[in-house]
Design brief:
Elements: E1 46-51, E2 57-60, H1 62-109, H2 118-164, H3 176-181, H4 186-193
Antiparallel strand pairs: 1-2
Length: 194
């Protein structure tokens, strides 16, 4: 259960010296959509041991870095689920396409043109018609069952495509030592070719 206990005193003080007000929070359980951040996310900023350009110690906001890491993990998980949706959509499309192809194939087998007895030809014809009907029934049934799922998957996949257009270029600052070690940089040549 999240929140303060019911018997918490109004005189309690939080980490920042402010009094904690008594609140009654009920039914605040974590679920798959709501998870508790790790303890490190609540640490705030700490002193960095490096000296800034002006010679003073400066604070590095690790809180924001931790939130970004949590967001990146959640985004990666969401991307994996989107990929699963793409694979599922493709698999459903192929199953429906295969059922249609197989029904057409069975239709061609109705008059196979073999030299067989009339009774056997009638049996083969009936079997081919039954198989074609079965394939069409499966295609229709699965198309109806999967229609709602496929529509929702298309919405999620379209939303993911829209996210790609909003990419922001990432700038990375390298240490001077690393730049001196890398005499050959393939990226610079690629930029010149473009």
């Amino acid at each position: 259960m999240a929140g303060l206990s019911v018997d918490a005193d109004g005189d309690d003080i939080d980490d920042y010296g402010k009094p904690i007000e008594q609140t009654n929070l009920f039914n605040l359980e974590t679920g798959e959509g709501h998870q508790t951040l790790s303890w490190i996310s609540y640490m705030g900023s700490i002193k960095d041991s490096e000296i800034a350009a002006d010679g003073s110690l400066h604070e590095v906001p690790f809180f924001f870095l931790d939130i970004y890491i949590q967001w990146t993990k959640a985004r990666t998980c969401a991307d994996c689920w989107r990929e699963e949706l793409i694979l599922l959509e493709e698999e459903m499309r192929r199953v429906l396409e295969f059922c249609g192809w197989k029904a057409r194939w069975w239709d061609k087998q109705v008059n196979c043109g073999r030299d067989v007895t009339m009774e056997l030809a009638e049996g083969l014809r009936a079997y081919a018609l039954a198989q074609a009907a079965r394939e069409r029934k499966w295609e229709t049934t699965w198309r109806e069952k999967w229609s709602a799922v496929r529509e929702l998957a298309k919405i999620v996949m379209w939303d993911h495509v829209m996210d790609v257009t909003e990419l922001v270029p990432l700038e990375v600052e390298l240490d001077d030592e690393l730049e001196e070690e890398d005499e050959y940089d393939g990226f610079e040549e690629e930029e010149d070719l473009l």
